[in-house]
Every structure is written in C-alpha cells, then in structure tokens.
Amino acid sequence: MNLHRRQILAAMGASALVGLPRPSFAATELTLGNFRITTLSDGNLVLPMDFLLGNLPAADAAPVLAQYGITGDTVEPPCNLTLFQDAERTVLFDAGSGSGFMPSAGKILEALDAIGVSADDITHVLFTHAHPDHLWGVLDDFDDPVFANASYMIGQAEWEYWTDPATVESIGAERASFAVGAARRLAAIEDRMEFIDGGQEVLPGILAHDTPGHTPGHMAFEIRQGTEAALVVGDAIGNGHLAFARPDWASGSDQDAETGIATRTRLLDQLATDQMAMVGFHLPGGGLGRVERNGDAYRFVAEV
C-alpha cells in the first residue's frame, strides 16, 4: 500500500495567456496493488451550525468544536470525491454538487482536469446516497448528463426513497428541495442506472455495504485487492470532529439520527480495529486517512 499527496496545477489556458495565477488542487492518492484511488475536491459547503447540531445543545458541542478551531454560526465542510482507476475502469464515487447547489462547491470537473481525466473518461458513477452534494453534479446547466459515457449504480432502497412522490411531503420543509432535485436528476439518468444491494460485489474489487441513517439507503464501498483495502464511507461518518469525539451524539445532518449513531459507531470500531484506510466525503485533508482510538472515543488521522 502506498499513500502520498501531491499538488496539481490545473491547466487553464485563458488564465495562462493573461498571466493570471492558476488554481491548484490537492490530490491524495492511495495505491492498492494495481488499483489507484485518488481523492479530489469538489469545493466545500457553507452550512448553518444548527444543520450540524440538530437538537444537540450548542453549549455541549462548543468545547469539542473549539478543539478543532470551529466557532461561530456556520461550518464549511470540505467535499471530497473519490476516483478509482484500474486497467479497465475509471469509477467516480458520487458526482458532486454541480452548479445548482452552492457557489462554493461544484468543482469536480476542474479537479479531474488537473489530473488529466475528463468527464468522458468516467465509466461508472457509484452513489453513496442522493443528497445534493453527492448527486446534483450528474447534470449540467442544460440538464444534459455530465458523464456522458458512464453507467450509474445506487442502492435499491435509496432509489426507492428519493423517487417516491411522498418523500417531498415527509422529509420536512427544510429538505423538500433535496427531494425535488433528487427525483428530477435520478429520472434523467434512469435508463443507465443499476440498482445494487449491500453485500454485493458491484464491480471487480468493489463491495457495497449497507450504512443507513444519514439517508435510508446510504451505502459505503469497500475497495479491496488481496489483503489491502480502503472504505469509501460517504456521509456515514459525516465530519472530522463530533462524529469521532462523540459518535453517540445525534447528528443534525442524519435523517434517522438513531440509525445514524448505530452505523457510525459500528464503522468507527471496525476501521480502528482493522486499521483499514478510509475516505470520508466531508473529512479534512482530502478525506483519506485512518481511525485511531482515543480513550472511549476516536480521532481521524489524515494521510499527509
């Protein structure tokens, strides 16, 4: 297993012509035999603190958050997409936000370009779940598929939830737009969608795991070659602070808080015990790292 981080300059011809600085993207890479895993930035979100805390008293969370330098009324979680490459496939886990969710996100095409991969090179898109920052990037501003040559995979339960017309009424007013947006985008790619279940090897070397709670059909994906493996956890472990320090606390971002707690504590224990590499969508340092026990809690150690 080999891990390293590299800085990549995006090739932006117009900027170069006028002498403007070009943006840089940090790409963290992990190799498992002949598998290559790269984490790429889709930008970041800007969220109200109560979206993270939910019903958790702010006074209880403040001391933990302060240890990570998080204060104020907002949080800005990074968005890390995972790219898998082998001799035959180029697989993207989740599609990012696109241009329709937040102006601070939707940067995946620039990040792919920076490592010499185009949207047309993507052979498969595997969804952990269908929240906007994971799904809305499948369509461009003209509602055409961004990844024109890709096939798509999503958990059967996740598909059924977001395509159910009743979801927009039951999900709550603050997330009703999530349901409307998901249904429209999923309908647009339905003809190229394959439904998958937990425990299924969805592609050679990639195993799906049921990890519900954040959404009803959330999935994680284990990438394995021989004895070496990494787990793409999506939002089942949703941040690098409270989720590790107090995994038993409910997360305001989870649609089913109690199921989310059970899933999160199970994954953290497994990852710490097995010392399996992991990628978290909203974790720091590109999201690639490991879980260590920290007394009765855990901590995330980024690979830098």
TrEMBL record:
For this UniProt entry, the molecular function terms from Gene Ontology, in alphabetical order, are: hydrolase activity; metal ion binding
The residue ranges of the Metallo-beta-lactamase domain are: 78-282
> Signal peptide span per the entry?
1-26
Q: Which domain of life is it from?
A: Bacteria
Q: Which UniProt keywords apply?
A: Hydrolase, Metal-binding, Signal, Zinc
Spell out the Pfam families in the cross-references: Lactamase_B
User: What family does the database annotate?
Assistant: Belongs to the metallo-beta-lactamase superfamily.
Q: What is this protein called?
A: Zn-dependent hydrolase
